[in-house]
C-alpha cells in the first residue's frame, strides 16, 4: 500500500532528494520521529512528525474499515501546482509498508525509489504536468469480539460484557432476535451493557455481534441462566408443650437424654444443587450458627449441640441451659444462584423445674387404719396444696396398691383451700394400704413421688358381759333390790382397758337414760349421780335406782380399744315386779266351829286343800305351805 503527504514549500530547482530514516524503519508510527522537510530542519508550524500523525490517521481509517483513497487522491492531486508549474510540486512520501512506491507524471514522469529502510524522502519533479498516483490498499484488520459467559445468576438484568475492536459497536440480542442493548467498545478493548428488559427464567443463549464499515462482522455467544426464585422457607420445629397460657415451653418430658429435640425441614432438591442452609441456635442470647452444605455435611457445631442431615431433614440435639432460658432456632436456605428463602423460626422457654412432691396423709392412728377411720369402706386421704410451686392446671395422680387410680386437675379454688380430700377404698382387715402420689405441671414436668403406707386393723375387743340381779323370767323382785337400787355388773377386757381402751355403758331405768364410762386407768364417770359405779379387776358394778313397779331396767355395754375399734354391745334387762300373786285359799275338812270330827279324819290324817294361782306358778311362781300339827 502507498500513501502521500503534502508538506512545506516547493524547493529550489537545484534541490537534491534527501532520505532520513527513523530508529524503526518498518514502523511509521514510531513516536518522536522528526523528519527534515526539503532537506531543512522544520520551520515553525512545520513538524516532520506531521507525516507520522497523518500516517496514523490512515492506519486508523483502515482499522475501522474506512476508505483512505480520499487522502491518497488529495495527496496525488497536490503534485500539480496551482498554475501548472513545477515550482509547487515538492512532496514528501511515506512508505507505510516498507515497499517501493512509484509515482508517475504525465509527460516526463519520475520514479523515486525508497528502500525498505527509508520511510521519508524529499524530491523535486522534473515536470509540471499533473501527477497520477496509483496504489493498492491493504485489507482492513478483522473484527474481533468475545462474549463472557455469566452462567447462573439471580439477577434478571445482569451486566453483559466482553472484548472487541475499539470504536466498533457491539449489539446483544436473544436467540429469537430480540435486541437487549448495544455498547461501543472502549479504547482498552472492553465493552459492557445492561439488558434493556429482564431475561426469562432459566437458560438463555445470547448473541453478541459487531461489524465495521468494510463489511466485516463477527458474532460471539454466551449462556446466561437466570434463577430469581428462592427456595421454600424451611420448617423449624422444637419439641415442646403448650403451657396452657398460649405460650410454648420445653419440659422435662420433651428432653431425650437431657437434650432438647428440634428439626429443620429443608428443600432437599435445592440443597443438592449446590445450595446451602444456615441455622442459628440462640440460647439465652448466645447465638451459634450452623451451615448445612450441599453434600449434607454440617459445620459450625458448638459444645452441647449435635446435628445430622438426611433426606432434607436436619435433626438437632441441644443441651439446654438452666430452666427459664429462652431457646430460639431460626433458619434460611440459599440456592446455587444466591436466592435466599424467607426465614423460619421457632422458640420455646426451657421450663424443666418440677413441682414439689405431694404431702399426703391418711385419716388413721399412727399408721394404723382403724374401724373408725373407715367410712363406707373408704379411707379419707388429705393432700396438702400450700406449696408455692403448685399452679392451677397441675395434675395430681394418686394410686393405691388395691388397684385404684385417681387423677385430679387442680383449680384455683383447690389452691385457695390449701388441701384436697380424696376417698380411697380401704384394704382388708390386717392388710396394708399403700398410696403413691405425684404432681405433674401443665407442661409435663413431674414431681418426685410421695409414698405412704398404713395397715388396716379393725379388730374390736371382746363383747362385755352384762347381768342384772334378778329372778328367772327377767323379773326383778323386791328381794333383788338393795337399798332401793337394782344391782347390775359388767365384765370387761381388763387388758384392753389397760392398753388405752375404754368402756361405754348405757342404762335405761324406767325410761331415764344414764351413761357410765370406764376409762383406761380404771376411773369411772357417770352422767347420773344417782347411778353408782365402781371398777375393779375387769368388773364394773352398778347400782341403778329402783324404777316404778312394772318398769324395765336395761343395761348395754361396749368396749373400745386404743384404735377406736368398738366391740359388739353386751346387753341385759329386767322388769321390776313387786306385785304378789293372789293369796291361796286354804281349807281343812272339818265341821262348823273349826271342829275336826272323827268323820273328818281319813286314814288317820286330817284332810286339807290349798287353792293356788296356777298362772303364776306356770310363769315361774311357787307356793309355800306351812303346816302346824299338834304344835
TrEMBL record:
Where does this protein come from, organism-wise? Chromobacterium sinusclupearum
| Source organism, top-level taxon | Bacteria
Query: Region Disordered: start and end of each range?
Result: 1-51
What is the protein name stated in its UniProt record? Bacterial Ig-like domain-containing protein
Q: Compositional bias (Polar residues) spans?
A: 10-26, 35-51
- Alphabetized Gene3D superfamilies for the sequence: Immunoglobulins (2.60.40.10)
Q: Name the InterPro entries for this protein.
A: Big_13, Ig-like_fold
- What are the residue boundaries of the Bacterial Ig-like domain, all occurrences included? 151-228
